[in-house]
From TrEMBL:
Belongs to the barstar family. CDD domains: Barstar_evA4336-like. It comes from the Bacteria. This is Barstar (barnase inhibitor) domain-containing protein. InterPro entries: Barstar, Barstar-like_sf. The lineage of its organism: Bacteria, Bacillati, Actinomycetota, Actinomycetes, Kitasatosporales. Residues 46-142 form the Barstar (barnase inhibitor) domain. It comes from Streptomyces klenkii.
Length: 143
């Protein structure tokens, strides 16, 4: 099970005092608040809406849409890993201090598709590790 985002919470993650990782979002934090704080801290953020997602196919479709993945995304685990370790599709003009994916309704997805959720967590974890030492790290919050 993924750990809860440690104190000082989202602020620590965005300021770099908490290392990037795959964390459970504290229940009091909402997606709009998280994305607003990320934007204020010059992080690029995307919300992955998992409400009603119960299969790998639906998860991949939601990733493609909500994360605005590139056309070459092949809708499989390897392709998701490739997209998350090559963030050129997500980079805009200017520099981001980091990249943040917030997966909303993670608990419901995990309950409906536990094997897929475990695999997704592993893919997210590998991508976070890949970017951990980069100037612009990646973090994933499971809400």
């Amino acid at each position: 099970m993924t750990d809860l985002l440690p104190a000082p919470g989202l602020t620590g993650l965005l300021l770099g005092t908490t290392p990037p990782g795959v964390y459970r979002l504290p229940p009091a934090d909402t997606a709009p608040r998280v994305m607003a704080l990320a934007a204020e801290a010059d992080w690029r953020g995307a919300t992955l809406h998992l409400g009603g997602v119960t299969t790998k196919t639906a998860f991949m479709d939601r990733c493609a849409t909500d994360l605005e993945l590139p056309d070459w995304f092949g809708r499989n685990w390897d392709a998701l890993a490739d997209c998350l370790t090559d963030l050129s599709w997500w980079r805009e003009e200017g520099k981001a201090r980091g990249f943040l994916v917030l997966a909303e309704e993670w608990a419901a997805f995990r309950k409906a598709a536990s094997r897929e959720a475990r695999t997704a967590e592993a893919v997210f974890g590998d991508a976070v590790d890949y970017w951990a030492e980069a100037e612009s790290p990646l973090a994933v919050l499971l809400g």
